[in-house]
Amino acid sequence: MSIILFLIGLIIGSFLNVCIYRIPEGISIVIPGSFCPHCKHKLSWIDNIPLVSYILLKGRCRYCAKKIPLQYPLVELLTGVIFILFYRRFGISAEFILFLSTSSLLIIAFFIDLRYMVLPDVVIIPSIILSVIYGSIYGFPNNFITAGIFVLIFYLLRVIFSGGLGIGDVELIFIFSLMLGFYGTLMVVVISSLIGTIYGVYLIRKGRAGMRTKIPFGPFLIGAFLLVSSLNIQAFYLPH
Ligand SMILES: [Zn+2]
Q: Which SS3 state, helix, strand or coil, does residue 223 take?
């Protein structure tokens, strides 16, 4: 079962790549079929097999020999692994479906935010809807109270340090609260702040950023969410 889900994950991951590239460019995600972003040559099925094609083509386009960004096989692999981890956590269930679909949308958001510093509504709004459904079924009313607390804190931080957190980050913490509850969300905040700080210090030491350089925080939040939710990391293990 794990292998089948991994393969399905790879295929979904390949579709997520299409979304990551096309949503900011305003191209339909269905038509036309896959093409090389550089030379626009249409890709046949043999150049379109997740992971396998990248390895067979040695990471280069068959037609223009331009390098295929490492992001492509990475997203496919990541999605495949996440499919397995959620299956091991939830089995085949409604929770499994809800976490998978939300995570898939957030993987798209991760890469778009990384490049364009924006969390697109077409991805965030469905994630919010999914998280409200999840929270209503599995976390009512606690996760909604958690959401209220974290949204308030994030909103205040946003107002106090104007230009720090984006409105998208507030939306993300709302989604995470509903999906993870209090301790899981706390863990996401701790992990993302830690990694974000380390990354910021690294950029400053390398001379690639100053104290005022804007770094999108969304990818750190999303990365931490994927980690916490797929590995079921809890801030505290409550005794049963
Ligand atoms: Zn090409």
A: helix
Give the mean model confidence (pLDDT) for residues 6-34. 94
Would you say the pTM of this structure is higher than 0.90? yes
Residues in Cβ contact with 170 at an 8 Å cutoff, skipping those fewer than 6 apart? 151, 154, 155, 158
Dist. CA 37 → ligand 1 center (Å): 7
At residue 94, what is the residue type?
Answer: A
Cα–ligand 1 centroid distance for 153 (angstroms)? 46
pLDDT per position as a tens digit, 170-194: 999 999 999 999 999 999 999 999 9
- Residue 53 CA, ligand 1 centroid: distance in Å: 14
Predicted pLDDT of residue 162 = 77
Q: Where are the domains of the chain?
A: 1-91, 93-235
For residues 158 and 98, which has the higher predicted lDDT (pLDDT)?
98
Q: List all residues 6 or more positions away from 13 whose beta carbon is below 8 Å from its beta carbon.
A: 50, 75, 76, 77, 78, 79, 80, 107
Contacts of range 192-201, beta carbons closer than 8 Å, 24 or more positions apart: 192/217, 192/220, 192/221, 192/223, 192/224, 193/220, 195/220, 195/223, 195/224, 196/220
Do 58 and 68 touch, CB atoms closer than 8 A?
A: no
Task: Output the CA 19–ligand 1 centroid distance in Å.
Answer: 18
pLDDT of residue 237: 60
Q: The tokens of 37 are what? A: 């972003």
Separation between Cα atoms, residue 90 and residue 88, nearest integer Å = 6
Q: How far is the CA of 40 from the centre of ligand 1 (A)?
A: 6
